[in-house]
Amino acid sequence: MMESSLFSDLLSSTDSKEKNLILKIPDEQIELGKQELSVSEIQQKVKEYNAQISNNLYMVDNKDGSYTGFIKVHFQLVRPISLPPPRQSLSLMQEDDYQGRRMKRRTSFYLPKDAAKHLHISSETRVREVIEALLNKFTVVDNPAKFALFERTERQGQVYMRKLSDDERPLYLRLCAGPSETVLSLVLKENETGDVNWHAFSFPELCNFLRILQREEEAHVREIVKRYALARDMMKQAMARMTTPG
């Protein structure tokens, strides 16, 4: 049952409680994130941003209109990440053999639910680069295509989640929204494309998913058969009471 629920999480990484809160982000907010700012507007926004923060994670603007700063990314992963095996001191003759075997032997590790990481990036850093940098910091060997970066916002008690495209610039979104994590936060989750990108998984992982899928299917079939059998018995009991002389 534990493996079965894990496979369900694979197909939908957002639990039912959170699903009730997540809504489609308004189109006008998406368009706002696509607007370009002039150099003077950027300088003004950087100044306003820095005036609101209480730590030393300032943004720095350059004369050419570019700027650098920090983003905080929260991790909401339901599946374990894959780490390389511990590296031991090897002789030169063992090195090639180690490199060949290290991709086959991986360590699975669940990140804590409250895990988060700060990254120092530039205004030109794209979403795909952010994902790769995060994986590198944790020495994750999984395919970056397995992951996606989401923009999470709150408004009037509602939570909005939007998957960012690979070419969007997270620092620009942070600058426009300001430093408040309630107004906007960045979340790394499993990639949700409507259909799972099975090509991003290894052969052993796919074999394991097939085994879990079969178990889950069998459990659902048993539950359906049980439910229909119960309904059938109740109907027969009702019919028996109707035909029994009072």
UniProtKB/TrEMBL annotation:
Residues in coiled coil: none
Boundaries of every Ras-associating domain copy: 103-193
Keyword set includes Membrane: no
Swiss-Prot/TrEMBL keywords: Cytoplasm, Cytoskeleton, Metal-binding, Microtubule, Phosphoprotein, Zinc, Zinc-finger
Entry-linked PROSITE patterns: RA, SARAH
GO cellular component, one term: nucleus
PANTHER family on file: RAS ASSOCIATION DOMAIN-CONTAINING PROTEIN 1, RASSF
Protein name: Ras association domain-containing protein 1-like
Organism this protein belongs to: Pundamilia nyererei
